[in-house]
UniProtKB/TrEMBL annotation, chain A:
<dbReference type="InterPro" id="IPR016208">
    <property type="entry name" value="Ald_Oxase/xanthine_DH-like"/>
</dbReference>
<dbReference type="Pfam" id="PF20256">
    <property type="entry name" value="MoCoBD_2"/>
</dbReference>
<dbReference type="InterPro" id="IPR037165">
    <property type="entry name" value="AldOxase/xan_DH_Mopterin-bd_sf"/>
</dbReference>
<feature type="domain" description="Aldehyde oxidase/xanthine dehydrogenase a/b hammerhead">
    <location>
        <begin position="32"/>
        <end position="138"/>
    </location>
</feature>
<dbReference type="InterPro" id="IPR008274">
    <property type="entry name" value="AldOxase/xan_DH_MoCoBD1"/>
</dbReference>
<dbReference type="InterPro" id="IPR036856">
    <property type="entry name" value="Ald_Oxase/Xan_DH_a/b_sf"/>
</dbReference>
<dbReference type="GO" id="GO:0005506">
    <property type="term" value="F:iron ion binding"/>
</dbReference>
<dbReference type="Pfam" id="PF01315">
    <property type="entry name" value="Ald_Xan_dh_C"/>
</dbReference>
<dbReference type="InterPro" id="IPR049648">
    <property type="entry name" value="PaoC-like"/>
</dbReference>
TrEMBL record, chain B:
<dbReference type="InterPro" id="IPR052914">
    <property type="entry name" value="Aldehyde_Oxdr_Iron-Sulfur"/>
</dbReference>
<dbReference type="GO" id="GO:0051537">
    <property type="term" value="F:2 iron, 2 sulfur cluster binding"/>
</dbReference>
<dbReference type="InterPro" id="IPR001041">
    <property type="entry name" value="2Fe-2S_ferredoxin-type"/>
</dbReference>
<dbReference type="Pfam" id="PF01799">
    <property type="entry name" value="Fer2_2"/>
</dbReference>
<dbReference type="InterPro" id="IPR006058">
    <property type="entry name" value="2Fe2S_fd_BS"/>
</dbReference>
<keyword id="KW-0001">2Fe-2S</keyword>
<keyword id="KW-0408">Iron</keyword>
<keyword id="KW-0411">Iron-sulfur</keyword>
<dbReference type="InterPro" id="IPR002888">
    <property type="entry name" value="2Fe-2S-bd"/>
</dbReference>
Length: 733, 217
């Protein structure tokens, strides 16, 4: 099915099931520990062997020699896989560094060996008896030092320019020129990257924790040099991804190689302390923003430049993307520059581009509003645009940023805010309110599904879509229930299996809308098959387990009396996304308390107002937003992969050193969804929500801290040491 | 969903869904050699094993384990109770929280041999699909999870935590350590802070626990 004209009325609009805040259908499994993750398929694989990954102890250089003798002689050891004995390996299209390194080492903790043993304890013990002699080479690990060597990247759209930025900025009555930094960050999902692999003849059967099943199949096949048809990849439950499981990682490849070497099923999980340097991360950025405005508060010049680093062959963090679209202004430029660094691979983490980009831009907007003496909400409203500022012939499909700001201001009590920084005390605390705009592009991508109508009237959906905590199982069931006119409990959803039709997968907040649109397409075909089978004529209505058309009223299950009906289709997209700029919008409001003596920041209240098309399930969508807000608080206040600039690795590579928010850091969170549909997006009229929620959060916290203390911190995270020497004089409250 | 044949809808969902994913009772399709077959009897470096009995969810389980085996791996790899999760294996995340002798502990920081004869309650012991513990049901109602990986630990931790509150054990969040603690939201947050949820369901988790504890959050 092709979606190339705006959606009109369709069966989803009934909203009997879609749009309802139903509980997750996989909730009883997740809350009882019976949902099975990649390392837990004891039901299908008895007595697997255990693989333990060895990571490189240097950041750059070569392995001179590897002495495996002690490890091989260790009890229970079945096989040891290294680049030396693994046979020829390719590199996945989505990987920058090799997943099994050696003799060349590209980054610290790059996997260099897998020890396979009868038990986990034996594999771990033997792994420590591998003796490696390295020839270390100097590398580049410091973005600030590498900044001047950064180049225009060869991929994507590194530069943009409209009008005469330099002239307009020079002539602007009020100017801001500020530089911001964001640190390297880690996904730190709760389930480590894990895989169970076995060889069934020449066919690889693998369970791996992966957001993108079809990408996974392709890259496993390419890396191992086997046909895609010989890979059966399953990922029914994923213990968090946030972009860190978009790509095949070392656990999958090494489990496959280990299983081949040991002639046994093998399972491998990355040890937590290996994850931070072995896998991908969100790279640090340096961002320079220049804004020029009239005294009345109209932006006339906008420039945003960003520098980030990655391994050779890698990509930049696209931190300027939102600045091309978020505010009006006749003269503008953006530029991305990429430096080569020898840290672990930089790649996508929740809202790549916009999340770090807005961390900078939305402080800059707050700073400019302050310079102008204009309320930051009014300043944003005054510079709204309803068209793509770089291509004014392209309107936004829907853009309700102003509504988000106004609704939020009303609900959060913004009017009562004293605009003067450091003006409000609450005992020993300095109190502050901050706001930021949220913006994230809406992506749609081809997604397929197969739908079965069984003799018992049960509707079964099969698609290789994944549920990474987003609620895919539930919204797909809701979509099929709505389309086929059956209650939710009459729908079975099977996900995350490469035997099923290829879906959008989960990433870039495209999954919810795209995958349900694919189910819509398959259900449309199944409806046609039902109508034909039942010999009905005219427009058919599917309601309450019945099919009504041309004055007849037949049980849906009757269509499958003679045998199961099966329909498969995919939703594909025309050029609506080119003709209309599709984005999601929001506004984040934060109230903080900063300890007047210690500089410790506590978040007291938070509110997000989101405009993101139709909300398919307000309960699961709200969870996506509060989760993103929570991650945004981490980005603002604590998350920072600290680089050892000499040895070249992230020092704090575990969950004690890399500080993500815990219960005590997060208050009750409020979320408001504006009632909206976007017919340009898909027949679901929905858009992405899971990444919008993090966009702008950290800046709203930073702006609240500024309001509380009068201190402008432009380097994340905003830890107390950055406030301590500048706190306002204590009144000893 | 007012059909005459509908029973408890949440239970129906679980049954239809669970049947599909659990492959309950079916024999494993693929198998390596069993440990008995694999053991080389005359290996001088063979691991030191100890026989012990764990009373898990009310059932005695006798095991012969490598002494290095954590309680967590004993549960997951030897008893196949995979509801208890390995998030960090270092006592930093709380995903492996189980209740041992009435106290919540990180199963990854405890060797199995330290628990010979102990009563261990895991998430599987609290409830099952169709027969949810009140805390499990509250987590479903409040959408107090996303990916589900920290969830069993959050639930085991919260059940034991409410018991700690009932027993009057003080916390950092209380204004007066001598006074009986109450289940305020800040108390709950403080006491649950050893259980990380990277999906960020904290706000909903506290709502779910608060509902079971009978307080407004």
């Amino acid at each position: 099915m092709k979606f190339d004209t705006p959606a009109t009325k369709n069966p989803i609009d009934r909203l009997a099931v879609v749009g309802q805040p139903v509980d997750r259908i996989d909730g009883p499994l997740k809350t009882t520990g019976t949902a099975r993750y990649a390392y837990e398929h004891h039901d299908a694989v008895a007595h697997p062997a255990y693989g333990y990954v060895v990571g490189a102890g240097i950041a750059k250089g070569t392995i001179r020699s590897m002495d495996l003798a002690d490890a091989k002689a260790s009890p229970g050891v079945l096989a040891i896989v290294t680049a030396d004995n693994a046979g020829p390996l390719g590199k996945g299209d989505k990987n920058t560094a090799l997943l099994l390194g050696g003799p060349k080492i590209e980054h610290y903790h790059q996997a260099i060996a897998l020890v396979v043993a009868e038990s986990f304890e034996q594999a771990r013990s033997a792994a420590r008896r591998i003796h490696v002699d390295y020839a270390r080479e100097p590398g580049a690990f410091d973005l600030a030092r590498a900044r001047d060597s950064a180049v225009k990247p060869g991929t994507g759209k590194p530069d943009s320019a409209v009008g005469d930025f330099d002239g307009a900025f020079a002539a602007a009555a009020v100017k801001l020129d500020a530089t911001y930094t964001t640190p390297d960050q880690s996904h730190a999902m709760m389930e480590p990257h894990a895989s169970t692999a076995l060889w069934d003849g020449d066919k690889l059967v693998i369970w791996t924790s992966n957001q993108m099943v079809a990408w996974g199949v392709a890259d496993v096949a390419k890396t191992l040099g086997i046909p895609k048809e010989k890979v059966h990849l399953m990922s029914p439950f994923i213990g968090g991804g946030f972009g860190g499981k978009l790509f095949v990682r070392a656990d999958a490849i090494l489990a496959a190689l280990g299983a081949r070497a040991a002639k046994r099923p093998v399972k491998v999980a990355l040890p937590r302390p290996l994850m931070f340097n072995n896998t991908t991360h969100r790279p640090a950025t340096i961002q320079r923003i220049r804004l020029g405005a009239t005294r009345e508060g109209k932006l006339t010049a906008i420039a945003h430049e960003s520098w980030s680093g990655d391994l050779p062959g890698g990509k930049p963090e696209t931190a300027v993307d939102q600045t091309r679209l978020l505010y009006a202004g006749a003269n503008r430029m953006t530029a991305l520059r990429l430096a080569e660094l020898d840290l672990a691979e930089a790649n996508a983490m929740r809202a790549p581009g916009e999340a770090p980009g807005l961390m900078a831009l939305e402080i800059a907007i707050d700073e400019m509003a302050q310079k102008l003496g204009i309320d930051p909400i009014q300043f944003r409203i005054a510079n709204d645009t309803q068209v793509d500022p770089e291509h004014p012939e392209r309107p936004f499909s829907k853009r309700r940023l102003i509504d988000c700001l106004n609704v939020g201001a009303e609900k959060f009590g913004w009017k009562a805010r004293n605009p003067r920084p450091a003006s409000t005390r609450d005992g020993r605390w300095l109190a502050g309110l901050g706001v930021a705009a949220a913006f994230r592009n809406n992506l749609v991508t081809k997604s397929g599904a197969r739908v079965r109508l069984g003799k018992d009237g049960i509707v079964t959906v099969e698609t290789d879509m994944t549920d990474i905590g987003t609620g895919s199982y539930t919204i797909i069931a809701q979509t099929a229930a709505e389309m086929m006119g059956v209650p939710l409990h009459r729908v079975v959803v099977r996900l995350g299996d490469s035997d099923y039709p290829v879906s959008s997968g989960s990433g870039g907040q495209w999954g919810g809308n795209s995958s349900t649109a694919g189910v819509y397409a398959a259900c449309t075909k199944l409806r046609e098959a039902v109508v034909a089978k039942l010999g009905l004529a005219g427009e058919a209505e599917f309601v309450d387990g019945r099919v009504r058309a041309g004055g007849r009223d037949v049980a849906l299950a009757d269509a499958a009396k003679g045998g199961e009906l099966v329909a498969e289709d995919a939703m594909e997209y025309g050029d609506l996304a080119e003709r209309y700029q599709q984005s999601t919008f929001g506004a984040h409001f934060v109230e903080v308390r900063v300890d007047a003596a210690t500089g410790e920041t506590r978040v007291k209240r938070m509110l997000a107002v989101c405009a993101a098309g139709r909300i398919l399930n307000p309960k699961t969508a709200r969870s996506q937003v509060i989760g993103a807000m929570t991650m945004g608080v981490g980005a603002a206040l604590s998350e920072h992969l600290v680089v050892d600039r000499n040895a070249g690795f992230f020092v704090n590579h575990d969950l004690a050193g890399y500080e993500v928010p815990v219960h005590a850091d997060i208050p009750h969170l409020d979320v408001v969804f504006l009632d909206e549909t976007d017919p340009m997006s898909s027949p679901m009229k929905a858009k992405g929500i899971a990444e919008l929620g993090i966009c702008g959060v950290a800046a709203a916290v930073a702006n609240a801290i500024h309001h509380a203390t009068g201190i402008r911190v432009r380097d994340y995270p905003i830890t107390l040491d950055k406030l301590l020497d500048r706190l306002p004089p204590s009144t000893d409250a | 969903m007012n059909e005459s044949d509908a029973i408890d809808p949440s239970r129906r969902d679980a049954l239809v869904f669970g049947r599909d994913l659990l492959l309950g009772g079916a024999a494993a399709r693929w198998a390596g050699p069993s440990p008995a077959q694999a053991a080389t009897a005359n290996d001088p470096q063979a691991p030191v094993t100890v026989k012990l009995t764990l009373r898990v969810n009310g059932t005695a389980k006798s095991l012969a384990l490598d002494t290095r085996t954590t309680l967590l791996d004993a549960l997951r790899e030897h008893l196949h109770l995979t509801g208890t999760k390995k998030g960090c294996d270092h006592g930093q995340c709380g995903a492996c929280t189980v209740i041992a002798g009435g106290r919540r502990i990180n199963a990854c920081l405890s060797l199995a041999v330290m628990h010979d004869g102990d009563e261990i309650t895991t998430i599987e012991g609290l409830g099952a699909p169709g027969h949810l513990h009140p805390m499990q049901a509250a987590f479903v109602r409040h959408d107090a999870y996303q990916c589900g990986y920290c969830t069993p630990g959050q639930i085991c931790s919260s059940v034991a935590m409410l018991e700690e509150l009932r027993r009057g054990i003080p916390s950092h969040a209380g204004a007066d350590v001598a006074a009986a603690p109450t289940a305020t939201p800040d108390e709950l947050r403080e006491r649950m802070s050893g259980n990380i949820c990277r999906c960020g369901a904290y706000s909903n988790i506290i709502d779910a626990i608060g509902e079971v504890a009978g307080v407004r959050t």
